[in-house]
């Protein structure tokens, strides 16, 4: 299997772990010294940081589904556009469950070594998610 195939397989395994809630499996696909250039609020370092983040996110959205819309690869990188869907059934960043359904888009680029994610850049529509669950967001004071 080529490096590219290993990397895509690792990315798919990571996605499956998130979608199925088998978050400890993330360790199979992510190094402990992951360099995350765009961590979520309060996300800690490495694989454990991602496990903790997705634990919180899946508590807020127990039916969370991340679907890859488009995927592009080269020898070391896997880039993809995705859609997140879920129902807000638990607290998120201090916002109690609303029962509202959310749908948001995002992009991620991951650099892999030996079939494991070592560096990540990404952007999700966090603002859109918060708006959809009814969060009152104030712009920063000028």
Structure, described:
- This protein is an alpha+beta fold.
- Helices cover 28% and strands 35% of the residues.
- The chain is built from 3 helices and 5 strands; from the N terminus they run αβαββββα.
- The chain has helices at 3-20, 46-60, 126-132; strands at 30-36, 65-73, 77-87, 101-113, 116-124.
- The protein has a 5-stranded mixed beta sheet.
- A hairpin with a 3-residue loop joins strand 2 and strand 3.
- The radius of gyration is 15 Å and the shape is globular.
- The mean pLDDT is 94.
What's the short version?
About 30% of the residues lie in helices and about 35% in strands. The protein has three helices and five strands; from the N terminus they run αβαββββα. The longest helix is centred in the first third of the chain and has 18 residues, at about 5-20.
Strand order of the largest sheet: 1-5-4-3-2
Overall helicity? 25-40%
- Per DSSP, the total helix count is 3
Could you tell me the strand content as a percent range?
A: 25-35%
**How large is the radius of gyration?**
15 Å
Q: Sheet bearing the most strands, described?
A: 5 strands, mixed
Number of strands: 5
> What's the overall average pLDDT, rounded?
94
Structural class: alpha+beta
Low-confidence region ranges: none
Helix and strand layout, with pairings?
Elements (H helix, E strand, L loop, with lengths): L2 H18 L9 E7 L9 H15 L4 E9 L3 E11 L13 E13 L2 E9 L1 H7 L10
Parallel strand pairs: 1-5
Antiparallel strand pairs: 2-3, 3-4, 4-5
